[in-house]
Here is the input.
Amino acid sequence: MVIKIAMLAAFFIVTVLVGLIYSKQNLSADDFVLGGRNVGSWLSAFSYGTSYFSATVFVGYAGQFGWAFGTSALWIGIGNAMIGSLLAWVIFGRRTRVMTRSMAASTMPEFFEKRYGSRVFKLLSAVVIFIFLIPYTASVYKGLSGLFAACFGIDMIWCILGMAVLTSIYVIAGGYMGTAVNNFIQGMIMLVGIILIVTGVLNVNGGLASSIELLSQKTCETRPGLHGAFTSMFGPDPLNLLSVVILTSVGTWGLPHMIHKFYAIRDEKAIKKGTVISTVFAMIIAGGCYFIGGFGRLFYSADKIVFDDIIPTMVTTAMPDALIGLVLLVVLSASISSLASLVITSASTFITDFCKTINPDFFKGKRELNLIRLMCAAFIIISVVIALIPNSLITSLMGLSWGALAGAFLGPFLYGLFWKRTTIASIWASMILGLGIVCSNAILHFTTPTVAGAAAMAASLVIVPLVSIITPKPDKDKVDEIFSCYDVTVSVPQSVAIVNGSTPMKTPY
Here is the structure.
């Protein structure tokens, strides 16, 4: 217990100090939200990765889907690395940085307004982002507090409150740059820790071969005739496995707090290096989490299965007491970094894109920065209240958030970067359909949150081009001016490479 407390105390001190050190650099709202658009490759890549993988993945998703799919849950981690990280950086990294810099857009709603010329869509998207990031944040608190409660034997309420206080201090003080530096430190802890956790879990049952042999003898409740279901290539339920891969991999393409990382990256060199670093990080972290989750049936045998308890039980069983403190730091690092990203995105979106749009004169000078900080605190409080609701599954909360946001914004953002023909009617259709699928499922429960979320994202990718084709074309001159940012010649066209300091353009809308 002394070792655990000492590790946590050191972590808390370093985290807070970094936040306080970088508080002096936050002279404006743009500094607080984007770090001056001057963030390098390692900080950007680790910020992306640590925001991607939190206690929600480690405790909630790895536990539930490892139980459901066995070792085939590893496909989720591979999908996260190759689709959610590698493809995301290749498709979005350069074009997002160029167009948002040219437009002087610092958030996703601001991008929508300047790309499509719709102030109403900007306002509504800001509200949607603020609302649906709350259950995501609540799921992170819930996952983190569950593991802490199991390791320390204290009530989850105090764990949640403690994490909320820590998040508040360093996010409100340090802003984006303080968060990015902390993310790098936290990411290094995660890399070391996940390797030790995988080794410990496998060694309990005599190594990898013995663990797989024992797992192959477990009977699948839904398919009792399928022998070795939990060690087969695609598991007992390939279709549901595919839906989880889609939700957790493609979903990042439409999540505001993930896309936000590309707004702040420095230059072409940082994008190229960041792509590689982010992919390797995701393969190790996501692959490790889902891999060990597949062996949950060897450690957990309660009469009533509580999916959120599976990973904490594995960890406390498999790891020596001296290393449980390190495990706690791994989950804490993953969670705090995600929380910081979510808080900054939601608070800045609500103040800058909603409140400031309604009354711009009120948000002059440092007032905007101070109100963003105040909204950070308010967002954390609301998320904590949601997290304290009993019997709310981590995966349900996260599935609702990811499905709603990616279903609403994936198509509008992706096609907005690449296709001049995208119309305002199509992005309204995407938002209405995506939110409709996810919210109706949350009420009527006609399928799982993951399947509904995956369906909403697929619908967004299909509905935007369909509606764009049958609705009037946007103004050609205005759209050409927006896309001209890719043709600005530096050493080569900016669609090939970007250089820091490109001149912002005046958006025609």
Notes: The chain has one domain: 2-394. The CA atoms of residues 4 and 10 lie 10 Å apart.
